[in-house]
Design goal:
Blueprint lengths: L4 E2 L9 H10 L18 H18 L5 E6 L2 H13 L3 E6 L2 H10 L4 E7 L20 E7 L1 E2 L4 E2 L10 E4 L16 E5 L10 E6 H4 L12 H6 L9 H17 L1 H21 L6 E2 L10 E5 L3 H13 L2 E2 L10 E4 L6 H17 L1
Parallel strand pairs: 1-13, 3-4, 3-5, 5-8, 8-9
Antiparallel strand pairs: 2-10, 6-7, 9-10, 11-12, 12-14
Helix pairs in contact: 1-7, 2-7, 3-4, 7-8, 8-10
Bound molecules: pyridoxal-5'-phosphate.
The site of pyridoxal-5'-phosphate (PLP) has 12 residues, from helix 3.
Subcellular location: Cytoplasm
Function: Catalyzes the reversible conversion of 3-phosphohydroxypyruvate to phosphoserine and of 3-hydroxy-2-oxo-4-phosphonooxybutanoate to phosphohydroxythreonine.
EC number: 2.6.1.52
Length: 357
Amino acid sequence: MKRVYNFNAGPSAMPLEVLKQVQEEFLDFAHTGMSIVEISHRSAAYQAMQDDTVCMLRRLLRIPDGYHIVFIQGGGSMQFIMHAANFLKHRGAYINTGVWSDKAMQAAAFYGETYEAASSKADHFTYIPEAGSAVIKPDTDYVYITSNNTIHGTEWHDFPSCNVPLFCDMSSDFLSRPVDISRFDLVYAGVQKNVGPAGVVVTIIKDSLLVQANSQLPLMLQYKTYVDHDSTYNTPPVFNIYFVNKVLHWLDAQGGLKEIEKRNIQKAHILYQVIDESDGFYKGHAVPQSRSRMNVTFNLPTPALEAEFVAQAAEASLIGLKGHRSIGGCRASIYNAVTEEGCQALAAFMMKFQKNH
Ligand SMILES: *Cc1c(COP(=O)(O)O)cnc(C)c1O
């Protein structure tokens, strides 16, 4: 078996230890003599695992009392709809930092008035606006942000404070660092970037927000349905939740989110240093103070060189370095499961490639 260095943006690298463990347990989940994909989601064995998953999320993220954690299908894109369906009554404010916040705002517009409270669109989403620069109109129901901009390679390092509920799409940096959940009213993360296989979203919702939700919606669109039925109103994505459970235990065994953050800072530093010391051969997309620790985006002098870079890297088992089709260039996604060794291998390749060109 040959494993490559995987820099895919999502779905993306998962911890090898977890993949092996899942493989090992696949035929016999928790001594039931059945696979996790074969047992009832109403069984005690399943319920214990799901409870433990919620418990681990609470512990790792230090989620305070007064919040519920639920599992929802439909990906991040379904949350673009649900957050507005449930909570957009007068107007929703969006801090537009990239393709995903743009899409969330467009999806939300179906339910009411949306507006950009701040935006870095005019500068090709190269930076995160100053937290204090957002202009919030009267009767705003919530402010919506995207903590990490997967496509553009920017990340909030200091979250805004506002006097309306704060919503956050954390899909691409969820569990990559400690976060003070008490600053948010609604947090969600599609797990396929950092935490598991595509097919489930973790949504964390504050009880004081939940009681204000629109109750005139189809049940499957109401957060309350997921909360009231402990995510099992209908069949939850059992395998995905099980996999997330394994990743959470892996994170815990690594030393938790403080430790993982430390490693992520170091990994990102390895790559940004190559970019900064390349005399402009590699040009980072993001301004330095807004750089993402998860997605390192950069350009080479020409699109032809970028294509050659991606192709040669793949030959060297460095996979997934092509930038998103909407902005081009190159992107190295270095989520939790990407090792420091992987980042060093890429850094060495980048230096060699520059020398040869
Ligand atoms: C990938 C991504 C999404 C979209 O998720 P889907 O599950 O494909 O709908 C949303 N937000 C962010 C920040 C992402 O990185």
